[in-house]
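EAL domain-containing protein, Candidatus Weimeria bifida. Tokens?
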Amino acid sequence: MGIFSDSKEKTYGSGSTASDYRKTPDISTLSDSAFDAVFQINAQDKSVQFFHYSDFFKKNGISDLTINDYDELIQTISDKLSVDDEKQTLPDQAGLSVVLSDIRRAGVFVRAFHVNTPEGKRTKSLRIYRGSSSDEFMALIIDIELIIDHDWMTDEYSSDGFTRAASNMIKSLDLSIGYSICYANIQDFKDFNDSFGDKNGDLLIFNEQHVLKDILHPLLMGRLEADHFVMLVPDDNLTEENLDRITFRTYEDNVIEYDYNIRLGIYHIHDSNENMSVMISWAKLAENKTSEEEHYTGVFDSKMREDYLKTQNLIRDLDHSIKDNELIPYYQPVVDTGTSQIVSAEALVRWNHHSRGLLAPYKFLPAFSKNGEISKITRLMVDSVLDFNLWRKSQGLKTVPCDVNLSQIDFYNPAIMNYIVERIKAIENANDYIKFEVTESSFAVLETEGINFLKELKDLGIDILLDDYGSGMSSLSTLESFDFDIIKLDMGFIHKIGTSRTSEAIIRSTIEMGHGIGASVIAEGVETKAQRDFLLDAGCDMIQGYLYYKPITQEEFAKVLGK
Ligand code: C2E
Ligand code: MG
Ligand code: MG
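Tokens:
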């Protein structure tokens, strides 16, 4: 689709190969949008022969009817189009002697200059290079901004281009009629790309582009990346019927038939002065939040803005808050089922936020999981647990190993994995102080680096615990694929003790199976005596739950641990 076609390689004056500049335009594909002029210059008599003019040049009286030679062309551009600052300088800077000297030296002459247009000041580029004979030179005048503004694959605007064009356009729209910024994105596009290859992926993007255009009739459209499109759409076109037609699609060619969903986020424009990039991100946020129940279409509302800003504030506050000790570990003791003695504890993060009070992990961990910052929390928890236990040890006080929860993100972060391994190597008998929990769902998607990290910890004697076992798509192969030391039964099962025979049977057989593979079993979320009695009878090794202890502060934990 490119506008350039490669011609043969040429060697220039000094012997250097100007491979970057050896592209000549394929005139048949020239669009008025990017090229203002394409012409040949004869260095002997300075005459020019034109191949192409843009409408913009013609409208300003610059054409082969009015221009006789190169000097006249540059002078006319200066007089009629140049911005004030450059009216005097352009004829000198782009004079033919300068051009020829640059080409002798560097193989090419390139200068940017600025012109006034009805849409405002724009940057153009004059590029001249050697032609087919020694006296002939090829020249192009290109609108650089249009090239930057353009997505060459789909012929739509690029991200910058859309932002600029849409900002300008909404100023001239009567917003009382109703217009929206829409953000579209194919659900699970990556899966399609992985299964059918990039080429088919591109075809699906074209398909999406045409669906969006045909149904929504956007005034402007841009492609931001891969399958992500953004549009300026009259609200009249956002009918329920249209939105449903967009959502549920089938892509078909000779080989593939594939059902897919286009997700759409809508931001109603209220104010023509609102920043376009911000409006696009609100539409994207609405797209992000939509679910299958909403037919993958979501309209941005003020609650989304509030939630988003709250999360952004938390993200902004994280580093400060860690320094100010606002993020702290709580400890939930784990007891031996038979003796009720504390045998370990799970470290659970809390945020004692300076203005919002004590925050539970679900309020902030999801945001940090998205941006990778969660590893800072992992590090803080590792340090807290180790420092706490090492201090107690140094005082001759009782210690129990405390579990730190690893996030899926940690397994993609070599720095945190290294940090943990190095800290543990530096401590004698670190297994007396720390263990790690991995949830079943993050284990399921682990790649080699993550598995190796867990193996390395095990080689250092550290216990690895499989958390929330049975909560999701548990599979026996999880247990087969890694030698877990402890299995933690999900509280979903525990809460059904006494009411569901099936859950009870699953608990009994999981405990048996755990023991069969040499692992101990913890039951999580134990709240009643009846649950405890059942677990004792079923042979469960350890219990964690409100029946014994809720998560408590470090001071309270130190107290219950005793001497
Ligand atoms: P989890 O690792 O499964 O932790 C157990 C959760 O169950 C804790 O919630 C705990 O307070 C709660 N719980 C314990 N016993 C009972 C009970 O008897 N009844 C009920 N209803 N709940 C009980 P919490 O502290 O809100 O943590 C929620 C989740 O947040 C954790 O689930 C874990 O996935 C995550 N999390 C907490 N701290 C960290 C951390 O430092 N790092 C990472 N990566 N994740 C953490
Ligand atoms: Mg856990
Ligand atoms: Mg758990």
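The radius of gyration is 33 Å.
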